[in-house]
Amino acid sequence: MGVPHPKLSAHDLTRTFGRGPGAVDALGPVELSIPTGEFACVVGPSGCGKSTLLRIAAGLLRPSTGTLEIRTASPRPAAMIFQDYGIYDWKTVRANVRFGLDVQRVPRRTADARVDDWLARTGLGDFADAYPATLSGGMRQRVAIARALAVEPEVLLMDEPFAALDAQLRTILQDELLELTQATRTTTLFITHSLEEAIVLGDRVLVMSARPGRIIAEHRPPFPRPRTGDIRATPQFTALRGELWDLLRREAVPT
What we know:
Blueprint: E1 8-17, E2 24-34, E3 39-43, H1 50-57, E4 65-70, E5 78-81, H2 93-97, H3 99-103, H4 108-121, H5 137-150, E6 155-159, H6 167-184, E7 187-191, H7 195-201, E8 204-208, E9 215-219, H8 235-252
Parallel strand pairs: 3-7, 3-8, 5-6, 6-7
Antiparallel strand pairs: 1-2, 1-4, 8-9
Helix pairs in contact: 4-5
């Protein structure tokens, strides 16, 4: 039996912004391979190109050189969740969650059932007819997560989705996302500057160098699935966080 193709792969991937003497080498070269069902977290110093990598994966940016490929059977294989929610203020919670399904022209009965399911799973059932302006930041991010997962994407791309939230709410949503993604086993590329977030959520933590960002290390958190947020209290969690911090500190403050 041959080795299965990765769900997402990058080879010799680079991105440069601008031309001439003012050009900025933002990313790469990056080599990356994410198998089906893996939750891969990317951490790195500020400005290292983490979000650039994700935007190339989403098709929002073109690479300067190299390739990034997502192997799927779906014509709309990926869904993306942004830090700033990316939901529509003029649509109700229900209309936001079903937006991607309407774009895909999913039959109404199927779409309604799927929207109801994700509203319930994300604790939004009582707010289906509310508008985003009346919701807290955490609830708006739940809307964004429900909208992305409702289309049943083969790949989920997440760009620091909890960065703007306070520490307590961030922990709650980390645990909720952990439960949801363990149930769906959606292949996920998750960008974060939080080492705790990466360890709690990730099957694998990829560490990027300072700009231009390259992947310089990877760690597999030693916690079997299904896991819960209780792993934060374990010595293994503390040890891995310390090891990752040492790597990032060396990149952020070169010796």
